[in-house]
Amino acid sequence: METKNDFTLSGQIVDLINEKVIKGRVHVKNGKIQSIEEDASITQTQVILPGLIDAHIHVESSMLIPSEFARLAVVHGTVATVSDPHEVANVLGIDGVKFMIENGKKVPFKFYFGAPSCVPATPFETAGAQFSEKELDELLSMDEIAYLSEMMNFPGVINRMPSEMKKIEIARKYHKPVDGHAPGIKGEDAQKYASAGISTDHECSTMEEALEKIKYGMKIQIREGSAAKNFEALIDLMKDHADKVLFCSDDRHPNDLAAGHINDLVKRAIAKGHDPLKVLKSAILNPVVHYKMDVGLLREGDPADMIVVDNLEDFSVLATYINGEKVAENGLPLISSVIEQMPNNFHAETITLEDIRVEDKGGDIKVIVSYDGELITGTAHARPKVVQGNLVSDTENDILKMVVLNRYEKAKPAVGFIKNIGLKEGAFASSVAHDSHNILAVGTSDEAIVQAVNAIVKSKGGVVVVKDGEEHTLSLPVAGLMSVENGYQVASRYETLDKMLHDMGATLRAPFMTLSFMALLVIPELKLSDKGLFDGKTFSFTSLYD
Fold it and tell me: Are residues 284 and 383 in the same domain?
């Protein structure tokens, strides 16, 4: 008896294993590829190929729980993700990772979660949890955990710190790969990092850096996220190193996910003249092999994980199938939303103007320099604007006050200054602040900053824009990171807030996303944690004043 998972598709069939395209039919029975029949008389031009894979993403960055992320991703031909849940782990610990796994199981989508290696990312910030060897061993022993997530403490790995080497040893015990995170590392340091057992890196921003890491045996995940965009710098790796390339988002906000996913990278790479079959191997075959994923590659006996596109140039996704179930068609998801619980860890208390006052001590201060499309920052030295002995935002010179407030307990906020945000009025704040996810805010006045921070405290997580004294909030009740609402509605609300920020003068393409990385201490150069200003080059705290 035929079921909805028994059907036949006809068209141009992509065989990635043998790097060829044939005309024929794909016969699916009980959700698996029963047979592939070659037929030169087929006239249909639609192309049938295996589904796309995001080789490194933090699902939490979409502000959606996994089940809702899946609804938006399948529309673009994505059938699986290699997902590092270290955002939720830093807030909720091992229970947060298990929440992601269990929620992901409730929809027809293939999530491959990792065991977060850095919870917290550094000892220089306050997080909601701490993973010891015990937690990592428990996670890596689970069938649902596919790998050890990015080893962000790259100095620790390079210098063979026992604590970091023990994490890698646990992954090896369970025969699971280890992901890397080593921005800007080259030469002897890159060799030491790779030789420790690190198999991938998604932080390369130059061809020189990527080629060195390939030389030392690492695979390069070309990243194109909402903030960090390295596609243009690295895509020519496809010419000679396609077997070492994977595609990833790393972090993708909901409006960007609604618009496109890995399909965009495939389309752009093909448009640049790269061999479509090599591009598709990077987007599909390479991650399947590297992470030992149970994702079909359009072979007899494989799960029927496949997509149908109009052609390999326009690459418009007509339908997506996972285990033979049609999960998207003509731009619409066929997966139902899931009603879910809302675990959280939020104990911050409201702040006052006095809490963010910075006394003028004379002389220049250190200023964080943000760069559009990059996670790295620079350091500038400038004379601050002073009003009644208090250092305040200077919109004329684009030097704005920034605060980070511990969200896990009552504490005094840390204060710094940042350049290149461009905001001319109001403030914005977020409880999405990598990796410990304390409250982070930037604004043009102390009053607006305090109002923005307190709006986040009152909602126990979310993103907010303060404009003309009014608060505009997108609540994120799951760990202060994710919504349980319809993904397209979340994307629309986020898009509204993003546009509002641009209307207020923000010059960054993704101001909320860029802001979220200004507390990420493991990426140089100057950042701000809830404990103070941090120098990523020396990996130590530094003073605001020179």
Answer: no
Whether residues 143 and 281 share a domain: the answer is yes
Q: Express each pLDDT in 163-186 by its tens digit.
A: 999 999 999 999 999 999 998 999
**Model confidence, pTM:** 0.94
- Helices 162-173 and 133-140, axial angle in degrees (round to 10): 20
* Same domain? 268 vs 362: no
For residues 160 and 235, give the distance between their C-alpha atoms in angstroms, rounded to a whole number: 32
Do 78 and 203 share a structural domain?
yes
Taking alpha carbons only, the member of 464, 484, 488 closest to residue 474 is 464
The residue type at 6:
D
The string over 341-356, giving b where at least 16 C-beta atoms fall within 10 Å of a residue's C-beta and e elsewhere, is ebebbbebeebeeebb
Strands 332-333 and 325-329: what pairing?
A: antiparallel
**pLDDT level of residue 1 (50, 70, 90 thresholds):** very low
Note the Cα 218 to chain centre separation in Å: 20
- What the block records as the tokens of 229 is 């965009």
Question: Do the Cβ atoms of 288 and 53 come closer than 8 Å?
Answer: yes
Domain that holds residue 260: 51-295
Same-domain check for residues 269 and 361: no
Out of 252, 270, 295, a domain closes at 295
Assess contact for 202 and 184: CB atoms under 8 A: no
Task: Say whether 485 sits in a helix, a strand or coil.
Answer: coil
Strands lying side by side in the sheet with 78-83? 52-57, 78-83, 110-115, 145-151, 178-180
Instruction: Assess contact for 382 and 365: CB atoms under 8 A.
Output: yes
| Secondary structure of 183-221 as H, E, C letters | CCCCHHHHHHHHHCCCCEECCCCCHHHHHHHHHCCCEEE
Whether 348 contacts 439, CB under 8 Å: yes
Residue 373 — pLDDT band, cuts 50, 70, 90?
A: confident
Q: Is the same domain home to 254 and 370? A: no
Instruction: Using alpha carbons, select from 520, 517, 482 the residue that is nearest to residue 99.
Output: 482
Residue 293 contacts residue 50 (beta carbons within 8 Å): no
Distances (CA, A) of 456 to 418, 424, 446, 472: 20, 21, 16, 11
- pLDDT tens digit string along 95-142? 999 999 999 999 999 999 999 998 998 889 999 999 999 999 999 999
Upstream peptide bond of 120 is cis (omega within 30 degrees of 0) = yes
Q: Is residue 258 a contact partner of residue 74, using CB atoms and an 8 Å limit?
A: no
Q: Cβ(54)–Cβ(82) under 8 Å? A: yes
Are residue 440 and residue 534 in the same domain, yes or no? yes
Q: Domain ends where: 269, 295, 321? A: 295
- Residues 70-87: b if buried by 16+ CB within 10 A, e if exposed: bbbbbbbbbbbbbbbbbb
Three-state SS at 8: strand
Q: Which two tokens stand for residue 45?
A: 């031009």
Q: In the chain, how many domains are there?
A: 2
